[in-house]
Amino acid sequence: MSPTVFKKHGYRFFFFSREENRMHVHVISGEGEAKFWLEPEIELAKNYRYSRKQLRNIESLIEVHYHELISAWRKHFCS
Description:
By secondary structure, the chain is α+β, with helices and mostly antiparallel strands. The protein has one domain. It has helices at about 50-65, 65-79; strands at about 5-10, 10-15, 25-30, 30-35, 45-50. The longest helix has 13 residues, at about 50-65. About 15% of the residues are buried. The model has no long low-confidence stretch (mean pLDDT about 95).
């Protein structure tokens, strides 16, 4: 199960249900995939095919939706 938190600008932000405990989000589009840690700070964990510019844009979207992502994580994994 991989619940989608939100979609924006062709990117899908989601979690994998059975993965590590450290808070993070996966991002996927037709152009690539990435994983970002959400704590202790937003940080790129893995990247597959995204350019630096795309990663900056994705990170900006994560910053804008940070509280939504944290809330969705807690609701999904801590409930």
